[in-house]
């Protein structure tokens, strides 16, 4: 039954894909009404105005561009012409750095807050106020203080990844079952060993949930951040191609951004399964 | 019924005879001595609720003591204080001549919910306790000790299963193995079998009794189950209802130390004892809280004791051997 369900789902998925591609192709291949105009003016106007051809690329155009990019992802012909592989690598690198820093800060701090009701109460207002701030609002402050656009982008990733991880770590740590802590107490387990052998495994699934939320947010934010700071990265590429009016490249990037985001999420989902324990 | 009546009368006589036979335990006999402990919680309106106060209870080495009482009488609090998980608001507990402070590896707790760490295997759970007890022991030694404890509770072969793969009874066995693995001086059990079905409960009671008799454990156990208390305990502590619960009396179990669970209800004096305990739970636990009999001394709660009379002994001898086991 599961097998046939998988099969049926696959068939439905592929049918939907075919339908979307067909609709897309039909939508962009139609010709709109054209108006009679002066030939010299028409020469300036381009195909959309003169022949009614849609400026929107069809699926075949996007497919061809995607194939071009995948064939040679790492070419580098100057600052404004780099392969998509290089652009994605820049973005992933920034996310990895900012996110990694956030892990290093959020988990130990979350442990401290979660284990101490005093710290929890004292720091709660700060977290509550800073959490809802859009990470891009930090950008000017980061640019002014750090004075480096690349580092500022990493800082923005750091700050947006921090909160979900911090809050989930606090939640996981403070929610460690009292009976497990009592077991550690009756066995005279020291605080450090208790943190690593009881609290960390007990809180790990919740912490990983926070890490998974964070990586999703970081990947969302990096595109916007790179549009602002420019230079390199997939976000910059999208904005650059918009300025080039290359809708084909924009759509190609959207597909690749989605793909990378999915891979990142799946990696953390797998890590989450490793630490989850059935009760 | 005729067999039960003398026991009844003797019990009443014993209670009336308190002045002469106080049942007081000599100081040298006391292994654990609960001395005037109280537990109070702040209540709304700036008042305090007293769960119990001025509670005194001595225990001998190697003795199996059961505490019976209704919910809210502070049984679990007494056990937590003995374990060192909670501090009394007043009073002290002396164990082996030393005032008790905090938890100790000498006092193992078997929790009501098994409290196993679900991310560790059976072996991992027991080894965690063993490695806490013997911090410098080698891995092989820790594993060997853990395996021995697991075999004691009859779980050999399940070492690598996770708690989620075990039945309720097996989980509780792991809890018992974990407690025994650290070779404690005192075993504290908080309704360890209350969540199990009757059959599993019976076999686990047998195991616990066998292990405790073999190792000479001193045990303090909380239970709601009168039959469990009769089967396992040397002495049964009866608590009146809370708040302001008191130790109403301490019943000494007259049944022979060599007991068989399946034949217990044939033992002379069994029903008299059982009726006495149930009467207490049904009515006296409530009436006694309001009015304690004159001359009640919380430092020396009345000890109800009875030894088997010659008639009872004859009745045991007359039982067919199959029933005695």
From TrEMBL, chain A:
One of its GO terms (biological process) is monoatomic ion transport. It comes from the Bacteria. Residues 88-268 form the ABC transmembrane type-1 domain. GO terms for cellular component: plasma membrane. Keywords: Cell inner membrane, Cell membrane, Ion transport, Membrane, Transmembrane, Transmembrane helix, Transport. Belongs to the binding-protein-dependent transport system permease family. This is Nitrate ABC transporter permease. The lineage of its organism: Bacteria, Pseudomonadati, Pseudomonadota, Alphaproteobacteria, Hyphomicrobiales. The gene is nrtB_2.
TrEMBL record, chain B:
Its main location: membrane. Pfam families: ABC_tran. Keywords: ATP-binding, Cell membrane, Membrane, Nucleotide-binding, Transport. It is found in: Cell membrane. It is a peripheral membrane protein. Residues 32-266 form the ABC transporter domain. InterPro entries: AAA+_ATPase, ABC_transporter-like_ATP-bd, ABC_transporter-like_CS, ABC_transporter_ATP-bind, NO3_transporter_ATP-bd-like, P-loop_NTPase. PROSITE patterns: ABC_TRANSPORTER_1, ABC_TRANSPORTER_2. Residues 292-325 are annotated as: Disordered. The keyword S-adenosyl-L-methionine does not apply. Residues 309-325 have a biased composition (Low complexity). PANTHER family: NITRATE ABC TRANSPORTER ATP-BINDING PROTEIN (PTHR42788:SF7), TAURINE IMPORT ATP-BINDING PROTEIN-RELATED (PTHR42788). Belongs to the ABC transporter superfamily. This is Nitrate ABC transporter ATPase. It comes from Methylobacterium indicum.
């Amino acid at each position: 039954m599961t097998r046939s369900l998988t099969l049926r789902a696959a068939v439905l998925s592929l049918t939907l894909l075919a339908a979307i591609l067909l609709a897309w192709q039909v939508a962009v291949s139609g010709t709109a009404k054209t108006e009679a105009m002066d030939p010299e003016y028409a020469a300036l106007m381009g195909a959309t105005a003169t022949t009614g051809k849609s400026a929107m690329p069809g699926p075949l155009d996007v497919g061809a561009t995607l194939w071009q990019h995948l064939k040679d992802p790492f070419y580098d012909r100057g600052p404004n012409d780099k392969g998509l592989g290089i652009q994605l690598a820049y973005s992933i690198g920034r996310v990895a750095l900012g996110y990694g820093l956030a892990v290093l800060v959020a988990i130990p701090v979350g442990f401290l807050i979660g284990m101490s009701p005093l710290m929890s109460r004292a720091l709660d207002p700060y977290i509550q106020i800073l959490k809802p701030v859009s990470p891009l609002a930090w950008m000017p402050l980061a640019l002014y203080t750090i004075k480096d656009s690349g580092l500022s982008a990493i800082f923005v990733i750091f700050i947006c990844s921090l909160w979900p991880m911090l809050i989930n770590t606090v939640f996981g740590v403070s929610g460690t079952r009292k009976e497990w802590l009592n077991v550690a107490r009756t066995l005279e387990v020291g605080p450090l060993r208790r943190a690593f052998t009881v609290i960390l495994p007990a809180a790990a699934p919740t912490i990983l949930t926070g890490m998974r939320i964070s990586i999703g947010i970081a990947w969302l934010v990096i595109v916007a951040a790179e549009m602002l700071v420019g230079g390199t990265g997939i976000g910059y590429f999208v904005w650059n191609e918009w300025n080039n009016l290359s809708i084909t490249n924009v759509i190609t990037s959207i597909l690749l951004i989605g793909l990378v985001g999915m891979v990142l999420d799946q990696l953390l989902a797998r890590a989450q399964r490793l630490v989850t324990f059935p009760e | 019924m005729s067999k039960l009546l003398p026991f009844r009368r003797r019990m009443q006589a014993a209670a009336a005879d308190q002045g002469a036979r106080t049942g007081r335990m000599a100081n040298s006999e006391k292994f654990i001595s609960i001395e005037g402990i109280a537990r109070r919680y702040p209540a709304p309106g700036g008042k305090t609720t007293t769960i119990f106060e001025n509670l005194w209870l001595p225990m001998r080495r190697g003795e199996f003591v059961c505490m019976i009482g209704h919910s809210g009488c502070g049984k679990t609090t007494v056990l937590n204080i003995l374990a060192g998980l909670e501090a009394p608001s007043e009073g002290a507990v002396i164990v082996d001549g030393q005032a008790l402070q905090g938890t100790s590896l000498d006092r193992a707790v078997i929790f009501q919910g098994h409290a196993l760490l679900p991310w560790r295997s059976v072996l991992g759970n027991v080894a965690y306790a063993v490695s806490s007890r013997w911090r410098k022991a080698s891995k092989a030694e820790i594993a060997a000790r853990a395996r021995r404890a697991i075999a004691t509770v009859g779980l050999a072969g399940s070492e690598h299963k996770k708690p989620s793969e075990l039945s309720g009874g097996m989980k509780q066995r792991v809890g018992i193995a974990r407690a025994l693995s650290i070779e404690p001086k005192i075993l504290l059990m908080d309704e360890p079998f209350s969540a199990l079905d009757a059959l599993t409960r019976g076999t686990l009671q047998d195991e616990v009794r066998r292990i405790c008799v073999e190792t000479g454990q001193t045990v303090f156990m909380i239970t709601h189950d009168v039959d469990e208390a009769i089967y396992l305990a040397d002495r049964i502590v009866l608590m009146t209802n809370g708040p302001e619960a008191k130790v109403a009396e301490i019943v000494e179990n007259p049944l022979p130390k060599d007991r068989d669970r399946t034949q217990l209800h044939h033992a002379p004096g069994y029903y008299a004892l059982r009726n006495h305990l149930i009467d207490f739970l049904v009515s006296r636990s409530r009436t006694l809280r309001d009015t304690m009999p004159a001359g009640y001394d919380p430092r020396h709660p009345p000890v109800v004791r009875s030894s088997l009379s010659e008639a009872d002994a004859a009745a045991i001898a007359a039982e067919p051997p199959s029933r005695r086991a």
